[in-house]
Design a protein that fits this description.
Helices cover 44% and strands 32% of the residues. By secondary structure, the chain is α/β, with parallel strands linked by helices. It has a single domain (2-129), classed as Transcription Regulator spoIIAA. The chain is globular. The two termini are 25 Å apart.
């Protein structure tokens, strides 16, 4: 598990199961926070390739406009490491819109849910299909 903190936000990156990386965002998502997330993800994904990512953005309060480019880089790294789909818990409309735009641009499927229970239910069904 990797925990990264910036003045206005934080991320926790860990394996949820042997095929899913979970990333929790807290507070403001800044370029520096996403840059650190990329390094944390690279460290964790070096051991094995993820198929799915579970993003929990429910504790996030927003994002800096400059964080978009770094977020796109993260998605490219996720895909390069073998990632196939992102499942997200998102309550803020601005983060939903950002997620849709970034995943469309990178070609990574994204499924968003308002609650953790719904997201995990979807993810469990996907894992059973594999």
């Amino acid at each position: 598990m990797k925990v990264s903190k910036q003045p206005d936000g934080a991320t926790v990156t860990r394996w949820l199961d042997n095929r899913t990386v979970e990333i929790t965002f807290e507070g403001q998502i800044s370029p520096a926070l996403v840059e650190q997330l990329i390094r944390d993800f690279a460290s964790i994904a070096a051991a094995r390739s993820p198929r799915y990512a579970l993003f929990d953005a429910s504790p996030a309060t927003g994002f800096s406009a400059n964080a978009r480019a770094n977020a796109s880089r993260f998605l490219i790294e996720f895909k390069r490491a073998g990632g196939r789909e992102i499942v997200a818990i998102v309550n803020l409309l601005s983060l939903r819109m950002l997620g849709q735009a970034l995943t469309f641009a990178t070609g990574i499927p994204l499924k968003m849910f308002p609650t953790r229970e719904q997201a995990l239910g979807y993810l469990v069904a996907k894992l059973r299909e594999d």
